[in-house]
Amino acid sequence: MADNGPVEDPVGEDARITSLQKRLARAEHDEKVRIGSTEQRADDGTRMGNRVLAELIGGLVGGAVIGWVLDRLIGTTPWLLLVFLFMGIVVAFRNIIRISTGRPK
User: Fold this and answer.
1) Do the beta carbons of residue 59 and residue 95 sit within 8 Å?
2) Fewest C-beta in 10 Å: which of 11, 46, 60, 77?
3) pLDDT at 1
4) 23-72 pLDDT, tens per residue?
5) What is the mean pLDDT of residues 3-29?
6) Which residue range is the domain that position 104 belongs to?
7) What pLDDT score does 54 carry?
8) What is the 8-class DSSP label of residue 43?
9) Are 55 and 99 in contact (CB under 8 A)?
10) Cβ neighbours of residue 32 under 8 Å, at least 6 residues apart?
11) How far is 91 from 86, CA to CA, in rounded Å?
């Protein structure tokens, strides 16, 4: 009396438990992806490079624009532009160092 069909548990498993186990497995996988503990993909280096470039350009441009606007409003040309440009560079490099060491924001 060999039955080639799927073998069932003698106790019989509840469909709710099976569904719960699937949802738990999916939630655990999503959490691993969220915190970055899954295997890194090949494009992670490219993504990190783009982030570093964005931080550098954003710091420079942001500092220059803020300094230029304040210079026009206050009339201290070019001092605030230089100060905020320097501050933008400092912040950009600080963020790049954070990215490279892997510390959270």
Assistant:
1) yes
2) 11
3) 47
4) 999 999 888 888 876 555 556 778 888 999 999 999 999 999 999 999 99
5) 76
6) 44-105
7) 94
8) T
9) yes
10) 38
11) 9
Total residues found in the chain within this entry: 105
Q: What is the mean pLDDT of residues 4-8?
A: 55
CA distances from 68 to 54, 60, 75, 89, 90 (A): 21, 12, 10, 15, 17
Please report whether residue 55 resides in a domain.
yes
Distance CA 48, CA 83 (A): 28
Provide the CB-side half-sphere exposure for 105 (13 A, CA): 3
CA 4/CA 38 separation, integer angstroms:
38
Is residue 2 a part of any domain in this protein? no
Asked whether residue 101 is domain-assigned, the answer is: yes
18 within a domain of the structure (yes/no): no
User: How far is residue 104's CA from residue 99's CA, in Å, rounded to a whole number?
Assistant: 8
Q: State both tokens at 77.
A: 């040309």
